[in-house]
Structure formats: C-alpha cells, structure tokens
Design goal:
Blueprint: E1 2-3, H1 4-10, E2 15-17, E3 25-26, E4 28-30, E5 40-43, H2 56-61, E6 66-69, E7 82-85, H3 88-102, E8 106-111, H4 116-126, E9 133-135, H5 143-151, E10 159-163, H6 171-179, E11 183-186, H7 194-197, H8 200-212, E12 219-223, H9 227-233, E13 240-245, E14 261-269, E15 279-286, E16 289-295, H10 300-315, H11 320-327, E17 338-343, E18 349-355, H12 361-372, E19 384-389, H13 398-403, H14 406-412, E20 416-420, H15 425-434, E21 439-443, H16 446-456, E22 462-466, H17 473-480, E23 490-493
Parallel strand pairs: 4-5, 5-6, 6-7, 8-10, 8-11, 9-10, 11-12, 12-13, 13-14, 18-22, 19-20, 19-22, 20-21
Antiparallel strand pairs: 1-3, 2-7, 14-15, 15-16, 17-18, 17-23
Helix pairs in contact: 3-5, 4-10, 5-6, 6-8, 10-11, 12-14, 16-17
C-alpha cells in the first residue's frame, strides 16, 4: 500500500529526519505492535496513558517494514527504517490526507447517537454491487480511528465507509474536514453523551455538522423524524436531503414530506437453534419501488437501519434486488445484539442477548423491545430477564432518562430485572413503586450483582445484557460462562 518514497512525500510537511533507506513497500498500516502484521508500517502514537515510541523494538520484532515515530529505536531495532517526526498523530493524519486525495473512492460518513457500527456493516453489504468497499474496523470513529481508516484506504477501492463519533462540540466538524465525504448519514438524534453537550439542541447541532461539510455529490440521509432539523441546518447549502422511516409517515409530518423510504412490513422468524425469532424478513418501499429483504436478526430497529442502507444504495445507483440479497448476510456483532447459548458453571444453558458494548436511552429501549418479542415457541415458555447497567455521560439528564426506562421495561413484562450502577437507583425506586410484584435486584456495581444473578439463572432463560461499556456488563457476562462459547452454539443475532 505504501512505498518508502510515497511515505516520505506524504510526510513532507512534518518530517524531521528520513530513514537511510526508502527501498521497501509496506502492505498495511498499524498503530499497535501487538496486532501488527509482518510487512506493516508502524506508526507510534503518544497519548496520556500510552507511548507507542516505547514499542519500536516490539514492532521490529513483529517484522514491521518501517515506522513513523518521534524517537529513534535502539539496539537491534536500529535496523528498522524510521521516519522521525515531532508528532506521531500528525504523521498519521498526513498519510490519511494523502491516501484520501489520491483515491477515486466515493466516501460515505456515518454519525449519530447510536447504530453507527451496525450502519457501517449494513452499508458494506448493501453497496457490494458497486464494487470494492473499504470500511472502518470496529468502532474507529475518533480522530485516530478515522485517520487510520483513511491511511489504510487501498487504491483499488470504489467506496469508503467511515464512522464519525463525537464526545464534544466541534469534533464532527473536524472529522468531516478530514474525511471529506460526499454522502453523509445521520443514524438518529438521540441522547448518547448528552451530558457532554449540555442540551439536545447542542447535540443535534453537533451531529448535523456532518452535512455542512459534504463535498461532491452532497447527498444527506437522515431519519424522517429528524428531517426538519436537517432542513434547517442545510437551508443555505446545496445538499440533497433524503429520509427513511419505520412506517409510512402521515402526510404533513416532518416538514410536510413523506419519507423517501420506509419499512412497510417486518416479520420476525425462528431459525437456527434458538427457540425464539432470531431473524426476520420484511418489505421496503424505496421511492416508488417495493422490495423484499431478509436479515439474520429479528430486531425492528435493525430492519429500519436496513431501510436506510437500501435507500443509500438506490441513490448511488445499485439494483435494489441485488442490494437486498446482500443484506441477508447481516447479523449483529458480539456486544451489539448477538444471540448465543451460554453454558453456566452448573451445566445449565441459557440464551444470551449480548448487547453489552454500550448504551443510551434509545438503544436501551430498542434492546428491551427486542427482549419483549422473544416469546419461545416451546411448550414451557422460557423466563425473560433483563440485566441492565447504567447509561453514562448523561449529565443533568441522567435521572430523567433512567426513569424513562420504566415504561419500556414494564411493557416488556420481564420475569426479573437486575439493575447495575448508582445512576440506576431512580429507576429501581420507580419500578418498586409501580410494579411491586416484579422481581428486582439492584447493585451499585457489576461485581455485587454477580452472585444474585448467578443464583437466579435457570436453564433456558433468555437474558438481555445491556449497559454502558465502562460499567462492566461484558465482563460480568464473561464471568458467568463455564468456558468460552463454542462456535457451534452461536445462533443468529437479534
């Protein structure tokens, strides 16, 4: 991907000392010596809790082709060609900008309060008929992640799908300037990280800033409910706005226009090992065209996301049938809705809805709604349990948003609820008042909920695990396992 001379040229404005030899080619770009693949270009980054410059020897031992670093290696690692720069991140960004400007790939950027990773996966499937697609790995949606994704952009790619995340005002503007997308997608205006933005208005402004930096085609895709906000944000720009929805909006709503695409029908289906629906099929209306599609997930919110992906594909010129056929391969990742069978220490097996990666009010409500629809198709119905960790970074909105979870929880009628984290206390008190017969357990941390949860679990239970990443829901789930999940026990994803 990168020749020595190409790296030198890309770093021209930040380079202090070039290596003695440029007679090599790097096949990839890495910022982590632990996952570096032989032949990669290693970029040493420095942060508040790490310093990649200390791992030049490890990168050399892992057979890195060359490195970009702030310091020169010592010992045997001196044989590693190193481009010395003042700031490793500036070096990474320089590579990213060069790769971006030299590529003919159409760039799409996705942001929103939740669903970015699922959208990225759906887009890479729906857009497959258009050619080779380069996409972000995992949740590479901050400045480092976006730059790394661009630096890895192969010349052969026809499209690039990027995730843009934000923890404060101005970050989306900065990332949009780096990505320079032609297509911008806002998955939804929710409440994630609202504590860092101060208000819903500020949060919406941050997400909408993606649309202000669009280039080229300037295609914007938003949820129909967010269309009025998007119109206001782009009123003085030549942006082509399009919207999608779960059901057909009533005429006169959302600025007087119907959605360009909507989910007309969705039917969860039971397939694989699980005794409840883990896949689904539905009907999409995209402009004047009707198309059937399938997903390896039963979740309604993922079906809606799929509608947006199909709309994007249609706008970029694909055959809807071809794109819909590709969506059949979609399933949620671990921690983002995956369904699996877990063997407990006592030998019993339960069904796990693993949505433990992160949480905000909208994604928590969607996960609870999914749990509510896991009616088992067996003579003896399985119990349904919700293990929910607090939603963090909500600031002054925390109590109100946690209490608001009472409505979807009570509607789901779970057999037991386990709440984790001090910010869940208001919800616990509300549930005790409104549903005194509900079996409810509360603990300030995941460690203290482990014993009551483990003792409560029974064979064939269906258990939702959901919460902010830092509360430790994923670790709790891992500790409940007797052993690592056998791949043969994995079902489709909700």
């Amino acid at each position: 991907m990168w020749s020595g001379s190409a790296v030198e040229q890309a770093l021209s404005e930040v380079l202090q000392t070039p290596p003695a030899s440029l007679a090599w080619t790097a096949e990839g770009v890495s910022i982590d010596s632990r996952t570096l693949v032989a032949g990669d270009l290693f970029i040493a980054l420095r942060g508040s809790n790490f310093d990649g410059n200390q791992y030049l020897t490890a990168a050399h031992q892992a057979q890195a082709t060359a490195a970009i670093a702030e310091t020169l290696p010592s010992g045997s690692a001196r044989a590693l060609p190193v481009f010395q720069v003042k700031d490793g991140l500036a070096g990474l960004i320089a590579l990213a900008e060069t790769a971006r400007d030299s590529s003919s790939a159409l760039r799409l950027a996705v942001t929103g309060s939740s669903g970015k990773t699922s959208w990225r996966k759906l887009l890479t499937l729906a857009l497959t008929p258009l050619g080779t697609i380069h996409a972000a790995e995992k949740s590479h949606n901050n400045r480092i992640g976006v730059a790394l994704t661009l630096a890895r952009l192969p010349q052969s790619a026809q499209l690039a799908v990027l995730e843009l995340g934000s923890n404060g005002l101005g970050e989306i503007t900065e990332l949009t300037a780096l990505a320079r997308p032609e297509v911008g997608i806002i998955t939804g205006l929710g409440t994630a990280h609202i504590g860092k933005f101060g208000s819903a208005k500020n949060l919406a402004q941050e997400k909408m800033s993606l649309l202000l930096g669009l280039t080229g085609k300037r295609i914007a895709i938003v949820r129909h409910a967010d269309l009025p906000v998007a119109r206001d944000a782009t009123s003085e720009l030549e942006v082509k706005l399009h919207s999608f929805s779960t059901g057909k909006p009533a005429t006169g709503k959302a600025g007087g226009a119907d959605a360009d695409a909507y989910l007309a029908e969705w039917t969860p289906t039971t397939t694989g090992l699980a005794p409840f629906p883990t896949s689904g099929e539905g009907t999409a209306k995209i402009f004047n065209e009707t198309i059937r599609f399938k997903l390896s997930t039963a979740a309604l919110h993922q079906a809606e996301n799929a509608i947006g992906a199909l709309l994007t594909a249609k706008l970029l010129g694909t055959s809807l049938k071809d794109s819909a056929d590709c969506l059949a391969d979609f399933s949620a990742d671990t921690g983002r809705g995956e369904v699996s069978q877990l063997t407990l220490k006592n030998g019993d097996s339960i069904w796990v809805l693993d949505d433990s990666y992160n949480a905000n009010f909208e994604s928590m409500s969607a996960a609870i709604a999914t749990l509510a629809k896991t009616q088992t198709q067996t003579t003896t119905p399985s119990r349904r349990l919700a293990v929910l960790g607090e939603m963090r970074e909500l600031g002054s909105h925390s109590q109100k948003l946690h209490e608001a979870l009472a409505e979807p929880l009570l509607a789901a009628q779970p057999d037991a609820v386990f709440l984790i984290g001090t910010e869940m206390q208001p919800l616990a008190e509300m549930l005790r008042a409104e549903a005194p017969d509900l079996e409810l357990h509360f603990a300030p941390n995941a460690e203290e909920i482990h014993t009551p949860l483990e003792s409560h679990l029974q064979a064939n239970d269906i258990v939702l695990f959901k919460g902010s990443l830092s509360i430790g829901i994923g670790k709790l789930l891992a500790e409940l396992q007797q052993q690592k999940l056998n791949k043969e026990n994995k079902a489709h994803a909700l």
